[in-house]
Amino acid sequence: MWQEARKHERKLRGMMVDYKRRGERRREFYEKIKKDPAQFLQVHGRAYKIHLDSAVALAAESPLNMMPWQGDTSNMIDRFDVRAHLDYIPTYTPPLLNTTTPEQESEERKCNYERYRGLVQNDFANISEEQCLYQIYVEELYGGLQKPNEDEKKKLAEKKAQIGYTYEDSTVTEADEQMEKGNEDDSENSESEEDEVIPDIDVEVDVDELNPEQVTEINKMATTYGMADGDFVWMLRKDKEEVEAIKHAKALEAEKAMYSGRRSRRQRREFREKYMKGRQISPPRENLWGTVKRKMRNKRPKNADELKATVKETWASIPPQQCHKLITSMPCRIEAIIKAKGTPTKY
Question: Which SMART domains does its entry note (predicted)?
């Protein structure tokens, strides 16, 4: 009976491990193929020929179907027009001042950034509209070219490691060397030809590598697309910070997932110590408020005056350096709490 139970337990454990590994492989696969949904957005336009029938137009404008509105012969309308039942049509005068609020203007600038970000980057990189449309046509026809990332390159390099060795009996002929050189030259020429034919125009401007002149130039280009001066670089920097934050959070989650299980308490403790290393630890609460509570509990003040005296005495007994450290760190604490928006801070 015990052996049967152990057998089923091992079988269930193997199934659980298989499901877990299958889920990890599925997650890795979807992480590789995951793309920005905006890349799949396509706008197609087709030219249609309009066939005009002169007989229909003449019949619609014939005096039999037209009538003056309110007896005004200079304003002829169709006799089936709904304006025939109206007595007065007020004239529309557009407002002289813009009625949009600052919030609406800010939202409109953000929308313009999302709309025309690629165009601004192409203008900054001196990429013409014909090149951009040609690459879109090639990607729609053959699909986008997937470039391997650095991790995949490292894995492939490790698998394809070779050790150079020459045997005593073997001889390297000059013909083989010339053939190898010729193949290398052909591959280089083909790569250069491919680069010339299909240029890569997916430009991503790195904000940190721009000098002040380039920042001014790209901000000036963005103003023609409905953005204020300085909006484009500021929003690019915000996008980059958001991507870095998401990447850091994913790395932390992946590292935490590695230390799951009963036997990994030490790893989790080391991870917490590594995460807390270099942080500024706030003064312990026990030194400030615990002392007050203990003295109040021992003395047991009977009225408000004794309570006030006890609190003053307790605060006087706290070292001045500790109070100074707490007070000077308050602005940094408040700023960190505001930026964190509910997430843990370094304090």
Answer: DRY_EERY
Q: Per-domain residue ranges for the chain?
A: 58-84, 102-145+198-277, 281-340
Joined together, the tokens standing for residue 279 give 């942080």
Give the model's pLDDT for residue 107: 92
Compute the distance between CA of residue 178 and CA of residue 156 in angstroms, rounded to an integer: 27
> Could you please report the per-residue DSSP string of 242-289?
HHHHHHHHHHHHHHHHHT-SGGGHHHHHHHHHHHHTT--PPPPHIIII
Cβ neighbors of 250 (< 8 A, separation 6 or more) are none
Strand partners, 347: none
CA distance linking residue 336 with residue 346, whole number of Å:
8
Q: Which residues pair with 78 in a beta bridge?
A: 66
Instruction: Spell out a b/e string for 227-259, using b for 16 or more CB atoms within 10 Å of the CB, else e.
Output: beeebbbebbeeeeeeeeeeeeeeeeeeeeeeb
Instruction: Give per-residue pLDDT as tens, 183-238.
Output: 555 555 554 444 444 444 455 788 888 888 999 999 999 999 989 888 899 999 99
Higher pLDDT, 185 or 324: 324
End-to-end CA distance of the chain, in Å?
A: 56
From the list 277, 275, 295, the residue with the least C-alpha distance to 286 is: 295
Rounded to two decimals, what is the model's pTM? Answer: 0.45
